[in-house]
Amino acid sequence: ETREIAMQKCKIAAETLNGPCITEDTSLCFNAMNGLPGPYIKWFLKSLGHDGLNKMLAGFNDTSAYALCTFGYCEGPGHEPIIFEGKTPGKIVPSRGPTNFGWDSIFQPDGYEQTQLCGIRRWYQKQNLTSFKSFG
């Protein structure tokens, strides 16, 4: 579903701009919930807050998750967007530290002891942009 949302977002942007465009979308996916909230994380966070997101996983033994960054590129109206994805595995933890980006205080990337997604997010965005550069 994330890819479909990214494709639609990119198509609409290309039509609105009447030209080429790049779009970006970020999702937070819980493995125990088959990828939810995914691209709907903004609305889940707004309705439930950080504590509520943690409570969603209370009935599961699995708190693993992944952050998914999706870039779309479209040459313009009438062209199909091309999608590039970057995935960062981690786990959901109780909220800690400052919240600089929506849900970053509850997502701890694998290999880290802190919720430092902002730096990691930039890393996988860069990986996606490198893929995009290779494409062109």
From TrEMBL:
It is an enzyme of class 3 (hydrolase). It catalyses: ITP + H2O = IMP + diphosphate + H(+); dITP + H2O = dIMP + diphosphate + H(+); N(6)-hydroxy-dATP + H2O = N(6)-hydroxy-dAMP + diphosphate + H(+). One of its GO terms (cellular component) is cytoplasm. It comes from the Eukaryota. Keywords: Cytoplasm, Hydrolase, Magnesium, Metal-binding, Nucleotide metabolism, Nucleotide-binding. InterPro entries: ITPase-like_fam, RdgB/HAM1. Its main location: cytoplasm. Its EC number is 3.6.1.66. GO terms for molecular function: ITP diphosphatase activity; metal ion binding; nucleotide binding. SUPFAM superfamilies: ITPase-like (SSF52972). It is found in: Cytoplasm. GO terms for biological process: nucleoside triphosphate catabolic process; nucleotide metabolic process. Coiled coil: none annotated. Belongs to the HAM1 NTPase family. Pyrophosphatase that hydrolyzes the non-canonical purine nucleotides inosine triphosphate (ITP), deoxyinosine triphosphate (dITP) as well as 2'-deoxy-N-6-hydroxylaminopurine triphosphate (dHAPTP) and xanthosine 5'-triphosphate (XTP) to their respective monophosphate derivatives. The enzyme does not distinguish between the deoxy- and ribose forms. Probably excludes non-canonical purines from RNA and DNA precursor pools, thus preventing their incorporation into RNA and DNA and avoiding chromosomal lesions. PANTHER family: INOSINE TRIPHOSPHATE PYROPHOSPHATASE, INOSINE TRIPHOSPHATE PYROPHOSPHATASE/HAM1 PROTEIN. This is XTP/dITP diphosphatase. It comes from Rhizopus stolonifer. The lineage of its organism: Eukaryota, Fungi, Fungi incertae sedis, Mucoromycota, Mucoromycotina.
